[in-house]
Amino acid sequence: MQQALAASPVLFPLSMSEAGDLVQFVNLNEQAYQSISFLDNRILQPNTPTAVIPWPELSEAAKDLPLRCHFIFHISHAGSTLYSRLLAAHPAFFSIREPGILRLLATEKHRSRLSTFLRLWSRTFRPTQTAVLKATSFVSEIGSDILNTVPDSKAILMYVPAITFLRALLDGAMSDINSQATARLSRIQSRGLLPEVSLGNLSPGELVAMSWLAEMLSLSRIANQFAGRSLWVNFDAFLESPHSKLTEAFGHLGIATDVNPILASEVMGRYAKKPEVNYDANFREKLLKQADDRFGEEIKKGIAWLEAIQDPTASAIIGRALERSI
């Protein structure tokens, strides 16, 4: 068991029982890792072979695996999947996108198992590679724990300004906003902010703005605690200047490289979550402008809600609300 786990990432931990006593594994080759956007139960087909390993056996087998990976933390709709694919186009990196178990580890119940799974996600197909793990957005809340667990790791913190977030989310992703609203407001209020706010009093635009603030607070805590290990990436600014921003990201992760071949590849012309779909910056901007026409009033309400917040803890973050670059 230990030899098989150490050999490569082919054995991937897909899910864990609620009690934490069993971990389900699937076989993934390198091509599968490259193509899959979400490494969770969505990849299972009726005939997908799986194996279940008891936690004590897994913990013992993984205890000597090295911790060696970097991270992408992000708010939603901020280009993180695209960045993950662009980094993976270089032979130095091996990308792992949104493992489902990491969401469980964001809960206090299973936090003690973080090191074991980070060791599993640090495995690569070649010794010259370093894994780059893209977390689900709300996992940023435990970003500090993650970076403390992997002391040599670096973090890329991806976001879009609030105006872009409002345009994108109001026009197609309100299910995420509504399903996570209670948890996000709770996270904000746990920091002593906005104690007077009630979800029932927020309009759709204000709900989206609140969601942006919650996720930005998580990213900012990572940046404040690990300033030398974190790099902010404004996705809008990347689209305006992809060469300089991607070069900076590679440099932050310790790689000096010519990014032109990567930017010229088909990765930039595809929808990162569904590579079979054509998608580029012009098409994205067209969709955002459509959102302006359909949701202009709610966009204004969201921005006004952010600008009305008078709290020194949030002031630096609110300052990013309307910016176009960083």
Compose a concise summary of this entry.
With 326 residues, the protein is α/β, with parallel strands linked by helices.
Keywords:
15 helices; Rossmann fold; single chain; five-stranded parallel beta sheet; alpha/beta; 326 residues; three-stranded antiparallel beta sheet; 47% helix
Q: Any overview of this molecule?
A:
With 326 residues, the protein is an alpha/beta fold. It has a single domain (2-318), classed as 3-Layer(aba) Sandwich (Rossmann fold), CATH 3.40.50. Helix content is 47%, strand content 15%. It is built from 15 helices and ten strands. It has helices at 2-7, 30-35, 55-62, 80-88, 100-105, 114-121, 143-149, 162-170, 174-190, 204-225, 235-240, 242-252, 260-263, 281-307, 312-318, and strands at 11-16, 22-27, 50-54, 69-74, 93-97, 130-134, 155-159, 230-234, 270-271, 274-278. The strands form three sheets. Strands 5-6-4-7-8 form a five-stranded parallel sheet, with helices on both faces. It has a three-stranded antiparallel sheet with strand order 1-2-3. A two-stranded antiparallel ribbon has the order 9-10. Strand 1 (11-16) and strand 2 form a beta hairpin. The radius of gyration is 20 Å and the shape is globular. The N and C termini lie far apart (47 Å). 38% of the residues are buried.
